[in-house]
Q: What sequence folds into this?
């Protein structure tokens, strides 16, 4: 009956969406900076208690002044260890926040890459200790330590810190949240402006229209995820062992899913205000159940099936695999990418069908 | 374009919302190549009718053809239809030109053709100087004009305009009507809904809707005649009673009130004949108003 979808008409819609978003400075600002604010917030909240830093100390001799200085820092609870490898192991298991290895040849600082705040505190204390020792370099038994002889090494443990496991998932959450809200509002506007009605009476099909939106929004999803990815990895020390392109692919499919979900739910809202009211209904369950904060295994069995219906569960899992374990596309294809793709297709179909129903 | 077949033909069309029959057996032919005006009070079914023509609403009963196609297939000829809703259907955060480019793109119009068409239409709606202004920053009337320009971008054969001239100043309205006239000369059909009687008088055909039916339909002259309204010639005469009697003898309907003789004119050509019979000091032609006709017709119903 109706002519086959035309990529060029979808492109016309995409171009328009890009033009609109480009002009909307506030939304652009939100897209780019809100993730940063969120990350900083989460970063501080999750990088652990600053008092009570568990620090390992391996005293190989030669730096008594430094040892005394470090031991005197109030916030540190010191665990004396026999060797550097012990310290490494304990940091890896998440039982220590860091370790200082004092050897006559130099000082080695082992830091947990996941908690930037604590790492910075430990480093500052070591620097201060080195300065204190330099001041006392003429005293017998003391050897001056130049800053260059302090070697810092980051440890990525198996049992990663909160921020490491949360970071990749937040990347997904941020994209999902903003795309959902922006898409739902965009479609509400299409309806209230009367443009949707006009589309219905034009050669533009519903499939072309929604596809156009997916294309147009994708550009901003890439922009947003690139920013967030940068902040997560360089700002918070979350490792990126896999390819950033693979991570972007996951986020793009998730974003496309969020867009069609927003389009679908816009049918149930009469105003932008009502879209905001969807947040507790659509966003919150994902945050709680997707396994960002606690493992899925700890979600009660009765509601666990819901976790497996939410796209963010798969996105969080896939992003963790890519960023922390260096997984490639083949590793996350099943079930994560498949589930995300399926979610997108189902809601793409529902969204286009609902647009049709609106007519009558 | 085929001038014999009507652009829209509706037969006993019914559309209900719940228990309310908004279109209640509407039958009308809208000929090709004319400007057709749908009149009627609020809630008489004008907008509902237009929405059934473009199949935004499905009929509950009756039959309809649009551009010689059954209305069920109208989505295949959307590119031949221009539809302007009462919502202006523009993007306030795009510029005037970007709005037009977007609609051109939807209809696959690009390149030089798009440039020319946008230039022509912006000139027609007097917005050439506002190309790069955001649509949201335009005044109500300008917004309306841009909406019309966007509706015309793909040169549709059938134009459906739901109250296109609301908020448009009289001078520009005149331009619109001249443009509609040009379109109908090219064989295109323009269907307009309006509350403004003076606009209806400019249309070739007028349909007056009441309670979901066509209460009266025809050219403005036909409607006036249907309501028994004719132009009247008011004559100031030295001897009104004598001259009125003279005119009556000649078969004219003439009456005297307050010393002024009023003669009913079957056609304007009669004025010359009347002036051959009497020599007035002053005279005035009183054209009947469609408004009166519709008032009379609704009272008669």
A:
């Amino acid at each position: 009956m109706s002519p086959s979808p035309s990529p060029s008409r979808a492109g016309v819609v995409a171009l328009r969406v890009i033009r609109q978003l480009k002009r909307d400075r506030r939304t652009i600002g939100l897209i780019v900076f809100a993730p940063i604010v969120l990350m900083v917030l989460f970063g501080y909240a999750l990088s652990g208690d600053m008092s009570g830093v568990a620090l390992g100390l391996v005293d190989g001799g030669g730096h008594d002044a430094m040892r005394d200085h470090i031991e005197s820092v109030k916030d540190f609870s010191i665990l004396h260890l026999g060797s550097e490898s012990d310290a490494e192991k304990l940091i890896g298991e998440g039982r220590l926040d860091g370790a200082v290895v004092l050897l006559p040849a130099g000082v080695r600082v082992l830091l947990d890459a996941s908690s930037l705040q604590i790492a910075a505190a430990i480093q500052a204390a070591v620097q201060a200790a080195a300065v204190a020792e330099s001041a006392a370099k003429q005293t017998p038994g003391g050897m001056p330590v130049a800053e260059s002889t302090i070697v810092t090494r980051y440890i990525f443990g198996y049992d990663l810190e909160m921020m490491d496991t949360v970071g990749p998932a937040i990347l997904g959450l941020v994209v999902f949240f903003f795309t959902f809200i922006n898409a739902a509002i965009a479609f509400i506007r299409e309806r209230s402006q009367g443009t949707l009605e006009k589309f219905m009476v034009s050669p533009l099909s519903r499939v072309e229209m929604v596809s156009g939106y997916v294309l147009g929004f994708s550009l901003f999803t890439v922009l947003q995820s690139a920013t967030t990815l940068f902040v997560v990895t360089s700002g918070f020390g979350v490792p990126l062992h896999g390819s950033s392109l693979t991570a972007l692919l996951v986020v793009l499919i998730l974003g496309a899913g969020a867009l069609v979900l927003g389009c679908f739910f816009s049918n149930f809202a009469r105003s932008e205000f009502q879209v905001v009211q969807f947040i507790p209904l659509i966003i919150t369950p994902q945050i709680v159940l997707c396994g960002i904060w606690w493992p899925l295994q700890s979600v009660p069995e009765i509601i666990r099936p819901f976790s497996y219906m939410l796209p963010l569960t798969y996105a969080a899992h896939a992003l963790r695999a890519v960023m922390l374990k260096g997984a490639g596309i083949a590793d996350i294809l099943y079930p994560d990418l498949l589930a995300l793709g399926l979610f997108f297709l189902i809601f793409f179909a529902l969204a286009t069908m609902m647009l049709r129903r609106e007519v009558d | 374009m085929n001038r014999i077949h009507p652009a829209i033909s509706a037969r006993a069309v019914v559309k209900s919302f719940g228990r309310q029959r908004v279109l209640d057996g509407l039958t009308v032919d809208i000929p090709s190549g004319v400007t057709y005006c749908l009149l009627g009070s609020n809630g008489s079914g004008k907008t509902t009718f237009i929405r059934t023509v473009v199949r935004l609403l499905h009929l509950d009963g009756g039959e309809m053809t649009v551009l010689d196609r059954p209305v069920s297939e109208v989505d295949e000829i959307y590119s031949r239809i221009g539809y302007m809703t009462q919502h202006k259907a523009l993007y306030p955060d795009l510029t005037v030109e970007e709005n037009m480019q977007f609609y051109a793109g939807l209809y696959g119009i690009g390149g030089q053709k798009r440039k020319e068409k946008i230039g022509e239409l912006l000139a027609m709606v007097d917005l050439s100087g506002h190309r790069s202004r955001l649509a949201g920053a335009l005044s109500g009337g300008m917004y309306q004009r841009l909406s019309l320009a966007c509706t015309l971008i793909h040169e549709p054969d059938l134009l459906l305009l739901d109250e296109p001239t609301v908020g448009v100043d009289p001078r520009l309205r005149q331009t619109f009507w001249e443009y509609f006239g040009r379109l109908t000369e090219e064989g295109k059909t323009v269907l307009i809904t309006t509350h403004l009687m003076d606009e209806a008088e400019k249309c070739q055909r007028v349909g007056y809707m009441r309670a979901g039916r066509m209460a009266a339909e025809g050219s403005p002259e036909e409607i006036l005649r249907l309501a028994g309204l004719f132009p009247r010639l008011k004559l100031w005469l030295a001897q009104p009673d004598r001259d009125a009697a003279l005119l009556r003898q000649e078969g004219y309907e003439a009456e005297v009130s307050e010393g002024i003789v009023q003669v009913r004119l079957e056609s304007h050509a009669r004025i010359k004949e009347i002036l051959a019979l009497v020599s007035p000091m002053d005279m005035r032609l009183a054209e009947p108003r469609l408004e009166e006709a519709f008032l009379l017709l609704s009272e008669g119903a």
About this structure: The domain at 230-289 of chain B is CATH 3.30.70.120 (Alpha-Beta Plaits). The interface with chain A takes residues 54, 56-58, 75-76, 78-79, 81, 83, 85-94, 98, 102, 105-108 of chain B (CB under 8 Å).
